[in-house]
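Notebook p. 47: complex prediction with pyridoxal-5'-phosphate.
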Amino acid sequence: MDIKRNILLNPGPSTTTDTVKMAQVVPDICPREKEFASLMKGLRADLLKIVHADPERYTSVLFCGSGTLNLDVCLNSLLPAGKKILVVNNGAYSTRAVEICEHYGLPHIDLKFPIDERPDLALVEKTLQADPDIYQVYTTHNETGTGILNPIRELGALAHKYGAIFTVDTTSTLAMRPIDVQKDNIDFCMASAQKGIMGMTGLSFIIGNRAEIERSASYPTRSYYCNLFLQYDYFEKTGEMHFTPPVQTIYAAIQALKEYFAEGEEAKWARHTRVMNAIHKGLEELGFREFIRREWQTGLVAAALYPDDPHWNFEKVHDYCYERGFTIYPGKVSGGGMFRLCALGAIDEEDIVAFFKVFREALSACGVTVPVIYKKN
Ligand SMILES: *Cc1c(COP(=O)(O)O)cnc(C)c1O
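Predicted complex, structure tokens below:
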């Protein structure tokens, strides 16, 4: 087997190992067979281990779809009649959650903070105090558009203090930056297979409080395909996904988890940190500025500001790198020009060193002055 190895520095899907790619090549199987159900049972149990969830209190529910499906499911399924969702919003992904609330007509408060700042906990508390109808507090752990880290443990504690459940979009941290659902006060978290676990696209999962899922059976149902209780209940009764699962992606996820546990939580986080340090160093050497101050960063995404150089052209730089096996990604903030380099995936420091050699050539090919220039100090 000889598959070209691309270094993906975009925020997922991530670079995968060849063993994970090949795990998809298996004999055909009907996913309604007991053999396949037992594979999913093991997978569901292993997902709990990643976030140190007690299997008595937590369960994991699998869905076929991209990561946004998880946001949709948690928001539309976990809201009793007459109650409200509080979205602590400082970025594009929490804004997506607000859009989902709007789409379903769910009562919600969009508590907005600047995208380059951490949420003001005192204001969050005041909001909770003022509105006893808030049933679910929702936020994003790592706002992948900028790479800012939100204080989930503190937000979760506040939610619980006021009797609300706490839901966190951990799509861009789970299986990378260590999470402990109990210590971090998380009732629901989520991710999809193509990010932290370094699997393939098409499988998403929610890890959450079993008692709350069971309670939600009596909440209004707002979606048929994307209802948490219905999917959970089907899994509990039959061991299967309600509808056809992404069969090959599940085989890949099982292999990816084997590799995850073999590498180990701490060693993996240390590797991502090594990769991110190499990214910071490479950007610094070229004079690039980052959007989020270092101490607020998650350590998985670097958002670098476009330089004020008339020769700078993201598309051209991107294409030069892409042709040489490195994928970089534009930013995700309205108005501001920036690009992102991410530390996800099966990559290590030497890949970043190799990338910056190519990136420097790309700048030179475009005629961009190095170190890069910014008008404002
Ligand atoms: C990637 C990501 C998602 C999911 O995006 P999809 O394109 O639907 O897979 C959701 N939230 C965060 C924070 C993400 O980084």
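Notes: The chain has a mean pLDDT of 97. The pocket of pyridoxal-5'-phosphate is lined by residues 11-12, 66-68, 93, 140, 144, 169, 171-172, 192 (CB under 6 Å).
Next step: compare against the earlier run before touching the bench.
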